[in-house]
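Input chain follows. Return structure tokens only.
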Amino acid sequence: MRIGLVTEGGYPYVSGDAGLWCDRLVRGLGQHTFDIYALSRTERQEDQGWIQLPPQVGRVRTAPLWTAHDDGVVHGRRARRRFSEAYGELLAAVCGGPRAASPEAPGVSEAPGVSGDPADSVGAEADRFASALYGLAELARDEGGLAGALRSENAVRVLERACRAPGALRTARTARVPDLLTVAAHIERALRPLSLDWYEDDALGSADLCHAAAGGAAALPGLLARHFLGVPLLVTEYGVHLRAHYLAAATLEEAPAVRALLAAFHGRLATEVYRAAVLVTPGNVHARRWQERCGADRAKLRTVHPGMEAARFADVGEGVRGSRCADPDTLVWVGRVEPAKDLISLLHSFAEIRRAEPRTRLRIVGAPAEDPDAAAYLAHCKALAAQLFPDEAEGVHAVGDNPVSFEEIGGPEIPSLAEAYACGALVVLSSVVEGFPVSLVEAMLCGRATVSTDVGAVVEVIGGTGLVVPPRNPRALAEACVALLRDPERRERLGAAARARALELFTVEQNITAFHGIYLEIVSRSPVRRLVVDDEGEPLPFGVPAEAHVPGRWTETRFMTACRPRWAEGAPVRATVPPSTPVPVSVREGA
């Protein structure tokens, strides 16, 4: 089958999110053809180029989210009116106000047929948002784009009217002009995929299935492919887009009106994505709970854990008992150095561990995240380590040494990621915010016992193969580490059980197998209805054989959409019939 894989800020670019698992998925399903539709986040990401693509990638189409090129489209009076109505409805649904009044019918302000039940009201607002969103998409398709309209002064005025309307959010009414400009710019950026030319029969319309690798803007092309062309949509979220927005907004110094309006917009968009998708595949139960709270139907959710390459950790994980461990008194932390990892609590916890076990050492292996504040956080952690643990020496003539070291992978002592886990007897995770703990799975594949904080999907990943303590509790973390440091046999048992669990649940093979089954299930339940015609324009019997949905290239026919939109013009697409295949003419298709 042909899969339209839609990504944002990741695959096929060298840097970005979700690139690794998408590449593993495409390479693992070589019997299918993948068309990549990539949205880039920064100019630097585009300059870095693509990774080497496998032969099953049919084509790649890209579009930037970091800039909006002037499409040169000038809307006439009728198009401007359509934009104001649709954009006003969208913003009214976001602001929570009543239905926007039409210029032709200023007295009409309430949605007909909506009862006073809160559940009905929520459903009505969701339908209102979706109708307005697709109305904007149809306008962009008819007129050639919305780049200028979304950045116009009229768009800001429409936003202001929605914020000032009766029944709007209380915080929205306090929005000032700078707040309105900020919100309008953010919404314009999020809606840039509406103006793309991907929604044609020879683009996403040729796919049997559209797979969005994330929610938010990455899912918008999939929504429109479903709306215009009937292509079924699969959404995968290893990190819930709405949750990520909430966490990022908490760290920004924005006005309350800006935070409230953007949270409402992303909430409405997430609700529509979950409603339109045939299936939604969260990466863990923690993400699944978030999706349910954001409006996802429980019947549509299928948990598919991310897959890790077990082979790169096989030498460490299958080593003789304890032979790969450089120092049985060493604790190891591996990951990106950022405030969410709470290394401050880890250092305070290690101070208590040292009082109970003076020979213990802590090796922090990682690098600062790309955020500029991460480098400052790393410097703060190093200063705290120097303050808590002055250099120690065994004798008056020996050189002092600090029991805490900050290292990076690639040096002479730690040449690879597997060696980072191999150099210690115990792996520690001290995060206060975590989605799917990749470093924890890597430690499990290395056969290492772990002590982790109870955040995100940690308990789901660990099962019963490690110790879990509350976050921001240095004493509990220290007590758990000391218990395992003093019991080598228990460490070995937990490490062996952890590796067995990781091999069963978190490998690339199980991830690929799960998605292969989901692809076949979706195509069998929601096939794209196409009409295949012969050279004379007549319907071609058996033009779409049953084998077309079975892995393999069984047909060379070309398709056209059965339900053609009003804007489509031209003759039907002709089918190419293999010379050796007889074409029956007396049997109806599907008989």
